[in-house]
Design goal:
Transcriptional regulator, contains XRE-family HTH domain; Lambda_DNA-bd_dom_sf; 434 Repressor (Amino-terminal Domain); DNA binding; 71% helix; Cro/C1-type_HTH; mainly alpha
């Protein structure tokens, strides 16, 4: 055999590379601090290798990459928010052509309707959790949005606000709360004068404030925004306004949960539930995905924040059985699965946590592989010897230890 066959069981690959290094089972066992019997069982497939630390120790003794031991040709995947990409977004957000009244420059100015379609495409890309693609799109999209607004303020106003919104949403995912704050601040300022646009932008503001650790401020701002958009007679209000109001109440509830205020959390989620019953599931007004299912999932997330992992699991199981679960955006479902995995980890159930994280990875790989929160959770679960083997292998392939 000239090289290790990638189709071989991992135990056979251990035996192959041990032979290549001219190590007897006893010598190999001694270097690992294991018994010869343990090595023999591993090589025959009687004993599973499902711990990251053990795989790394074997690879070190055999002087090979862990990925080779797993039978893969793997290039480690880093977090997509590379400095140059984030700096391009920062540069685009730092332009002041609009307030300074600068001309659009030599680049072609997109018509407002075409710009609007490109912003919609960016939102769709976000909701499918295609973050690596979106991070390359945003600098150009922001520049185009600013040029179009400068040339056509009336037509370019709304797409500009939504371009800032989707930028803030992505930056929260990438863990850059500071830059996300700049983007959402731009959105809020640009939206001034339109109560609907302000409310839509405030959804991302709530996410940014929570990510920045300003839970109390987030709750206060979200309540002000929610009650500003709240219709005087909810029973006859249009779905889009109800969705914005309900989503802002969810953001306020999550902030209250982060602050440890369980009574305010429950009260706000009850208010959101009443609005969701009128809206129903399967709609996505203003890219909120608001409805009864989203409120149920928010209850699970809030329970995790409040330290009640058992109740979080109950809400998770209830939420995913709803018809509305399959209608939610891919990003929304995968992000929730990560929250549910956290709940299981808090109950000391690493296997169930790993199973849910693996499901999140199948649903939207970027949520686990490129989002810092997902990678951190992956590392925590993989360090537990009870974690599923798939999680162990994924952590090794991503260089997450």
């Amino acid at each position: 055999m000239r090289s290790a066959d990638n189709s071989l069981p991992i135990g056979r690959r251990v035996a192959y590379w041990r032979g290549r290094r001219h190590l007897s089972q006893q010598v190999f066992a001694d270097r690992l601090g294991k018994s010869k019997s343990w090595v023999d069982k591993v090589e025959r497939g009687v004993r599973a290798l499902d711990k990251v630390s053990t795989l790394q120790e074997i690879a070190t003794v055999l002087r090979i990459d862990t990925a080779v031991l797993l039978g893969r040709t793997i290039q480690p995947v880093g977090v997509i928010a590379r400095a140059d990409e984030v700096e391009r977004i920062r540069a685009a957000l730092s332009r002041y052509e609009i307030p300074l009244g600068r001309p659009p420059g030599s680049r072609q100015v997109l018509p407002a309707d075409r710009l609007a379609r490109q912003v919609e495409h960016a939102w769709t890309t976000f909701q499918y959790a295609r973050y690596p693609h979106l991070v390359t799109l945003l600098p150009g999209l922001l520049a185009d949005a600013q040029r179009t607004h400068a040339a056509d303020p009336a037509g370019g106003w709304v797409p500009l606000v939504h371009a800032y919104r989707v930028t803030a949403a992505l930056l929260v995912k990438l863990g850059d709360a500071g830059l996300a704050w700049l983007a959402v601040d731009r959105a809020m300022i640009a939206a001034t004068g339109d109560r609907v646009l302000v409310a839509a932008s405030a959804v991302q503001l709530g996410q940014v404030l929570r990510a920045a650790g300003r839970a109390r401020e987030a709750k206060s701002v979200m309540l002000a925004a929610a009650y500003r958009i709240a219709p005087p007679v909810p029973e006859y209000a249009p779905g889009p306004e109800l969705s914005l109001c309900g989503t802002l109440l969810i953001q306020a509830a999550l902030a209250a949960a982060r602050d440890g205020d369980d009574s305010a959390t429950a009260e706000l989620l009850d208010e959101a539930t009443a609005l969701a019953a009128q809206v129903g599931d399967g709609l996505d007004h203003h890219r909120t995905g608001f409805g009864p299912t989203s409120v149920a999932l928010a209850r699970a997330t809030a329970a995790v924040e409040l330290g009640d992992a058992g109740q979080a699991i109950v809400w998770h199981q209830s939420g995913i059985r709803r018809d509305g679960w399959r209608w939610l955006a891919t990003e929304h479902r995968a992000a929730h699965l990560i929250d549910a995995a956290r709940a299981h980890l808090h109950t000391d159930d690493a296997f169930s946590a790993g199973r849910l994280l693996a499901e999140a990875d199948r649903t939207a790989p970027a949520e686990v592989r490129h989002r810092p929160a997902g990678r951190d959770l992956l590392g925590q679960i993989a360090r537990d010897p009870r974690a599923p083997t798939t999680i162990t292998h994924l952590a090794i392939s991503l260089g997450v230890g």
